[in-house]
Amino acid sequence: MGTDRMDDQLTSGLLAAERRLQAAQLASDVEALDLLLDDRLVFTGPDGSLQGKGDDLEAHRSGRQRMSGVVEEDLAALVVDTTGVTWFLGTVSGTVDEQEFAARVRYTRTWVHTAAHGWRVIAAHVGPA
Question: What's the domain count of the chain?
């Protein structure tokens, strides 16, 4: 198998993982999120705060965070060996601590690929777009 074909398969798999992540966030599917988030995850919020995987899972599990919409405008990906980066541009909406929100945002996510787990997010950042 040629390198280009392998790269195409990895990129397609990464884009599919990104879309599974979006669906899991929308459904607050904690089991799916657990599989898609690396245990070492560091998430930088729009206010500069840092959160880990446990924080994210608990926010969904407890209902403190609920997504009601994820509308993708653009999605790009780059794969280098076993590292991938996705850039999502779109609108997200929902509630956090019973406060409604809707925002056009840019997520940048760094993913790692292993034979045991496939693609998993290890670092992410979201900011207004």
Answer: 1
